[in-house]
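Researcher: I've got a protein sequence and the SMILES for pyridoxal-5'-phosphate. Could you write out the 3D structure of the bound complex as structure tokens? I'd like something to compare against our soaking experiments later this week.
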Amino acid sequence: MIAFRGGFHGRTLLGVTLTGMSQPYKQNFGPFASDVFHVPFPNAYRGVSTEDALAALEEVFATEAAPERVAAIIVEPVQGDGGFLPAPPEFMRALRDVTTRHGIVLIVDEIQAGFGRTGKMFGFQHSGIRPDLVTVAKSLAGGLPISGVVGKAEIMDAPAPGGLGGTYGGNALACAAALAVIEAFEKEDLLARGEHLAARMRDGLEKLQQKYQCIGEVRGLGFMLAIEIVADRSGKAPDAALAQRIIDESRIGGLLVIKCGVNRNVVRFLAPLVTTEAQLDEALTILDGALNRAAG
Ligand SMILES: Cc1ncc(COP(=O)(O)O)c(C=O)c1O
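Model: Sure. Here is the predicted complex with pyridoxal-5'-phosphate in place.
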């Protein structure tokens, strides 16, 4: 299988093997599953273009695993834990082309980006591609534990009945919550609401970027937004300690935010799509105070 540096796919043996981040996921664990190769993910801020990432994929085909030996490529439409890096649409389309050409299954991991967080129901819709398999969880049931794999019938029907399952599979309460979430998307127009909140939040974060030199970049897609914290804007050296201070000061002020990024220097915001404008504005005010105390 091929996955991407900075990708996060969970903590089972294969999940952590596919994950392209050493700290904290691969630290003190191992050995990992064999035959998983990692390729750079596009990151304009750090100088990795779509062309660079695609060239690295071709290099893996040439040096490590011939394409006919590759079962699947797994990609997040927006790298979540890896630093809220949206995959450029042309990158997703190129992955779709390459996988179709070689008969490789394209898996899009929508566990973090799915269900409206990026402004569309699924992140892959921004590039117009059709994946072969899609993983879903998190926002699917608004916090209740449920996850799923959706995909082409020929793949989904391959296991024999009972071949896939688990103690909590099909849990009635979680399924009811997921149905209620889908209904809320329709009745409350949550996609449009997310877009509205996203624009307001991006605007607020960009104003904070003008005020604080430590915010190297404001980025994300839809309401999935983050700020990358650097020691100085020209050198762009990641400042994980400062990011942690901002997170701690935010918590003291009453705002819970978490870090991400391979260097753990990105502060990410994952507020629910039902957040009110007043709550969002309050959060931005708390963040302003936290930045002021941590970096000022
Ligand atoms: C993109 C992505 N994939 C997979 C996972 C792992 O999901 P789980 O913890 O349900 O195994 C996560 C969790 O954060 C995630 O963000």
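Model: The two ends are 45 Å apart (CA to CA). The longest strand covers residues 215-221.
Researcher: Great, I'll pass this along to the crystallography team.
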